[in-house]
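To: structure subgroup
Subject: Chain for Friday's discussion

All,

I'm putting the inputs and outputs inline so they're searchable in the archive.
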Amino acid sequence: MRISRLLPSLVLVVAFSGCSTLNVTSKQFIPKDNGKLALLKKSAPDYQVDNIEFKHPDGAISRGVYIHKPDAQFTVLYFMGSGIRLDVAGGYFAKPFTELNANIISYDYHDFGRSDAPESAFGLAELEKETLALYDHARATTQGRLVVHGHSFGSFVAAGLAGKRPLDALVLEGTGTSARAYVENQVPWFAKPFVQVNIDPELSSTDNRAALRAFQGPLLIMNGVNDVQTPLANSRELFDSLAIPHKRFEAIRDAGHMNAMTKPEALAAYRSFTGSLN
């Protein structure tokens, strides 16, 4: 945690707990990226990391990585959470997939991280067009099974894609029913009586239940039991609302919003799920 985020939290703790001592060390001022992409060289030495890019008709360039080895059993097209960048967190989210013997394809979002774009209006409709183009390119250039995996905000991106394309399989991690529920979950319980959330019409219409209404492919939904950003009850509500014959729900113990895929039971569920695909 960066010092700019740590100190305000500690000050609040001190303020509400009476006299106390605040210990600050030099290490708190020295940044360290524990999940950076370069760490895969040590954690997954058998894998090769290729830089990739896709040029969209409007001039935008989606840049990402293809993490691969010859004997991988399947490929994952991974959509990250909002605000997550490949160079900062790519090693962290990719490592579990290397343990699953899978290849990984992932791109930074529009004009973010490695990706560039000309100045233009860009919203969820434009994001959907880019997502469809990236999926179509990945599907055309990937042999074997291609599993679409979305985490957090990326789960809404992946669900929207699943409503438009016949996917081999879909995995939603740290997900929920709607954008409204997602946003409202960001407000702490003690602040809810005093905070009114206004969501613009484009965002308020985003609903995974509607996006997945026609989807009939294999589906795995995973959620950390301790997830407060996308609570377990929300993801379970989504799961129960879907009339999909091949669906599976996994509540990952001792996991929050960002670390479910690091848990052994999540990896076991993933292996079982992908092993059941035709």
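Points worth raising on Friday:
The chain has a mean pLDDT of 91.
Strands lie at 48-55, 61-68, 74-79, 102-107, 146-151, 169-173, 219-224, 247-252.

D.
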